[in-house]
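User: Quick sanity check before I run a bigger batch. Here is a single chain. Can you write out its predicted 3D structure?
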Amino acid sequence: MPNPIFPSSRPDRIRNMLAELVTFDTISDRTNLPLIAHIESYLAFLGVKGERITDETGTKASLWVTIGPEDKPGLVLSGHTDVVPVVGQDWSHDPFKLVERDGKLYGRGTTDMKGFVAVCLAMVPEMLEAKLTTPIHLAISYDEEIGCVGVRPMLAEIAKKKVRPLGAFIGEPTEMKVIIGHKGKHGVRATFHGLARHSSIAPDGVNAIEHAAELITEIRRRAVKLATEAERNSLYDVPHSTLLTSIVHGGAALNIVPDTCTVDFECRGIGIAESKEVTDAIVAWAKAEIEPAMKAGHPECGIDFEEILDYPALDTKADAAIVTLAKQLAGRNDHAKGAFGTEASLFTSMADIPSVVIGPGSIAQAHTPDEFIAMAELEKCASFVEKLIAHCAKN
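Assistant: Done. Predicted structure follows.
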């Protein structure tokens, strides 16, 4: 392993670290343990040991690292290691090999969000040299892309610790803007169980698709109501809560009354728990209004509901200490709210750690073919971390 402490320059250190992280295929349906082991090896070279939190399968792990005194409340730099798939995308090069062109670094995860993780890891030597009096924690998670799954066991462990962190910076791509809020999300799958019959005797069956259509229509009706009557917040691009049906599967053949149909729907709510409140109300309505008619056709017919995704909204107060500090470190006076969900709301809800979202790169590049991050964005992030180190060395 090359010496991570004395490369030619900080940009080269960050570039080299990002190149290493990109080589690991950490698409969410695969293990991230090789990447975690690589990070652990790097940190061990520097004399730093992390705390590994492994999932129930033993194939995924998060890493919690403390640099500085462990008996004092510190500040968290948090990022996830998983990336979205590349199948079906038209890449001009190997997605898992870093390519640099015109000041841009291309590769899967460069923006979302291995670029931020690379900056944090590359600057561990500075953290060590600064002799921090306020600790800096690195929280490196997995499976964020499939519902903020992997950070939860880590936060459960953090919540048990005697000393709770002062706050967290979640490094999702915001172009280093200070994001103090985002909508929550609750996703539900409704599986309609009907009764198959030959279509020539359709009235003898129970049509799962037609009953599912009633649910879809009701979801649409309520979505319009949210858009026109519900609470609004001008800090969001879409200033109201949203609700929609996103996936529908059903039917086997034109001449068969369909006995199965699945409907996936979601709410993204402004209120902390609004998303689940909205979907729970829809579930209750469907059980009261649709299911009895299905059971009248046959007692074994009905609807099963399954939660497929859930995280609360983030709503950090604009005058919170963590927001003020984020603005100082970023050299900004403004703040905003984001359109996409992050682990920040779970840091707040599960571990009572005030959080903001701030990181390099643009969400416009995330999940795309030829995903990239500008080197200038990584340097802005490095400046943020440099100022954080200085802050933690004098406080």
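The mean pLDDT is 95.

User: Great, the batch can go ahead then.
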